[in-house]
Specification:
Largest sheet: none
Distance between the termini: 64 Å
Number of strands: 0
Helix content: over 70%
């Protein structure tokens, strides 16, 4: 079977889900494909290039609200965008770590322009728009990485110790009962609401 970039990326994502990012190597991938390791370098200069391609494919498959749609309200779009971004990364084992450190593809600049344009039309400057987009993106990514990390073995001890601190104990109970999705939504909502208040103050 012909080996092309798409098949390499597809197999790399399957290997990622099976073994995790730490076990993903060009050697293991070559063995999976039934080819010699140097053959991979014909398509990818190194593991970093492969991971960038994997990240792009993860987003292509799952980031369904990456760019604004006609008629989108900026605040609703940002919330939908963050949800979509999170879901895309959570769909793959170590998806957050795969994305971390990647740069936007030059082909994505048109999408970025529409994102900034939506916020500028709402009254933000391009600089403020970029600050908000980066803040929300990094917050979402951080939430995903935390959610996909191995659970800490001392969580029960921490909860028991918190009983000596009534406010903290109540807050920790809320955290445990709510789960990562509710806390993610709360954080994104706080950031968007703060941006809306800042924008309203600027336009007053």
């Amino acid at each position: 079977m012909k080996i092309d970039r798409q098949r390499i990326v597809d197999e790399a994502l399957l290997l990622l889900n099976e073994a995790g990012l730490d076990a993903l190597s060009t050697r293991a991938l070559a063995e999976r494909l039934g080819i010699r390791q140097p053959a991979l370098y014909w398509h990818f200069k190194g593991k970093r290039a492969l991971i960038d391609a994997m990240n792009a494919e993860i987003l292509r498959r799952g980031h369904t609200h990456a760019a604004p749609k006609p008629g989108d309200v900026w605040s609703a779009y940002l919330l939908a965008n963050c949800r979509s971004f999170r879901n895309a990364l959570l769909a793959y084992r170590d998806g957050g770590r795969v994305h971390a450190g990647t740069e936007a593809d030059p082909q994505d600049l048109a999408k970025v322009e529409t994102q900034i344009g939506l916020l500028v039309d709402a009254g933000m400057t391009p600089e403020t728009a970029m600050e908000l987009l980066v803040a929300l993106g990094r917050y979402t990514l951080g939430c995903v990485i935390e959610e996909q990390a191995e659970p800490q073995p001392n969580a029960k001890q921490l909860d028991e110790a918190a009983a000596d601190y009534p406010l903290t104990s109540r807050a920790v109970l809320h955290y445990r009962d709510s789960g990562p999705e509710i806390f993610f939504e709360a954080g994104v909502t706080l950031m968007i609401e703060a941006a809306a208040m800042r924008l309203a103050k600027r336009q007053a």
